[in-house]
Amino acid sequence: MVGLVAGCRACGGPLTVTMADLGMQPPSNAFLASMDDVKDEKRYPLRAKVCELCKLVQVDYDVAPEELFSNYVYFSSYADEWLAHAKTYCEMALRRFGLDPSCLVVELASNDGYLLKNFVQLGIPVLGIDPSDTVAGAAQKIGVPTLVEFFGERLAKELKNGGRQADLIIANNVLAHVPQLNDFVAGIAVLLKPGGTATIEFPHLLKLIEQVEFDTIYHEHYSYVSLYAIERVFGRHGLRIHDAEQLPTHGGSLRIFASHAVRADLRDSASLRSLRSQEAAAGLADLDTYLRFAARVEICRRSVLAFFAQIKREGKVVAAYGAAAKGNTLLNFCGLTRADISMVADRNPHKQSKFLPGSHIPVVSPEELIRATPDYVLVLPWNLQDEIMRQLADIRTWGGRFVTPVPVVRIHP
To answer: Whole-prediction pTM value?
Structure first.
């Protein structure tokens, strides 16, 4: 469906509770090739609502997936910390699941092959599935076989009927990007071998609420997931979550381990039981928890605007780093433009020489930012702030300082 969502995408329940209303915004990865494209720029409502029944948080206006993902410009291989995270995962999976050349590993939303290449080097057969031909093409160039498809039950049945089922299914940071959540999880159930395991990573709704990470809300993220909500979705399709880990990635994520519910050899882990208790204590089953979030978002917005008002009074120059989707949400919600931020630098050459959606700030190389010697650098992908501050340490040589915007503005020494 495209347009206003009538009911919960998981259970069909009512969506009457608004967690955050971020106004009319362009899709956060709809970069402009030139300022001539401004006249064709589209904006859509960006609201996060909560299902009264299953408590799944979700946007209530769907933009067509083809518009959001067909020419995707996010390449995972440009984030060093994420590459290290993927390599560590593969080493763990090899040991834990006893993978060998007789197995098949399938990754959903495999991007540019950044993760699966580790298994290829070990001689483990892999298959990537990603709807973007831009990132899939990059994966194929490094020897990672990739289907350019949106994943769901239909494709899973085609693969199964062709004799391909997975010993391990990996889905990292894709669950939120799926408009048809039940179809996606049903596909996992079909594609997974009877004794197989699916591991799924996603930003944890609990951390989003605790840290006021409202900028992770954008049209490409249809859902914002808690363990409470996703256990109900998986159970509906004959899958059971039996283990979970808390991860530091993306401001705080979960990695869940799911298998077919009929397996009698698996028991709920201690960490899974602990996470259920944490979410219950935080009130994730209580609608009032979500209603209180909007006031905290407004506090963050005011702190950002106060910072820029002070900078203008002082005649200082602000640049930004990281042409990230979350940054675009924040910039557009706060109404910031190139009048406030001179440029945004990014290592990804596919984003350079373009303009951010909505704010129209030009995207440049990190080298150009260094040459410009701004007084402040606003770190938009704050989840990578340590890595970025190391990469741009030279800004301190002329007295430049780093700024992070969430949960409130912080100026770093």
So the answer is: 0.90
